Amino acid sequence: MLRQDTSRINTDRTELSPQDESLQGGSGGIDIQRELNRLEEMILDSPRIPLTRRTLIDEEQVLDQLDLVRLNLPAAYLEAEDVIRRKEEILAQAERYAQEILAAAEQEATQILDEMGLVRQAKLEAEQIRLQVEEECELAQEQTLAEIERARRQAQQEIEEMRNRAIAECEEIHNGADDYADRVLRNIEQQLGEMMRVIQNGRQQLQQESAAPHAVPAPQQQRQVPSPRPPARS
User: Fold this and answer.
1) For 13-17, 43-47, 89-93, 149-153, which range has the lowest pLDDT when averaged over its residues?
2) Residue ranges of domains in the chain
3) Which has the minimum average pLDDT: 6-20, 115-129, 164-178?
């Protein structure tokens, strides 16, 4: 039941607090749910009596808030009735909107199918190109491997030939060194043999001279000792 003094409720809303303006709807009315929430906040934010479950409430503020809600309830009811009356119209508009959405969806689906056909064709062409590139890559890889194998075999053959030549040259050098050493040793042996004969002849002559000390030895031609010959060069 409304109080008799309703002038305090500010029904004309000429002087609204910032909080009331935030609760006001976009159509010029108020939001009933927000006003009820505000009433609940008034009760919850009110101070409590210690050691009790009671709350001190500003009666005037709470009653003003309740009157504000009661005065605006008929408007909410009227809006609900208007929605009910316009149900058929709203349903028709919704159906037309749904038909428009379906038509747009069908058109978009057709366009998508066309694009999918193009995409499918592009994918097929891309797959063919990929397979061709893979075949070319495999062929190039096989050719490269074959070329590498040929180069490896050729290098191995050249290395084997170089090794055989080096072995032959080493053997030739070794054989030549043996021949040279043999010739040098043979020359030294000949020179030593001649020197031994000279020494033996000298000793025999000395022994003969010591056996006849009073005899005047006839002048003999001094025998020249041959000088050793240098080793022949190979």
Assistant:
1) 13-17
2) 7-85
3) 6-20
Q: Long-range contacts for 36-42 (Cβ within 8 Å, ≥24 apart)?
A: 36/69, 38/65, 39/65, 39/66, 39/69
Sign of CA dihedral 10, 13, 17, 23: positive
Instruction: For residue 51, count other CB atoms closer than 10 A to its CB.
Output: 6
- pLDDT band at 232, cuts 50/70/90? low
pTM of the model: 0.28
Which one-letter DSSP state was computed for residue 230? P
- Answer yes or no: are the C-beta atoms of 183 and 232 closer than 8 Å: yes
Sheet strands (E) in 103-221? none
Hey, what amino acid is at 153?
A: R
Angle at alpha carbon of residue 211, lines to 207 and 216, rounded to 5°: 105
Answer yes or no: are the C-beta atoms of 3 and 67 closer than 8 Å: yes
Q: How far is CA 83 from CA 76, 79, 90, in A?
A: 11, 6, 8
22 has a pLDDT exceeding 80: no
Count of C-beta atoms within a 10 Å radius of residue 59 = 8
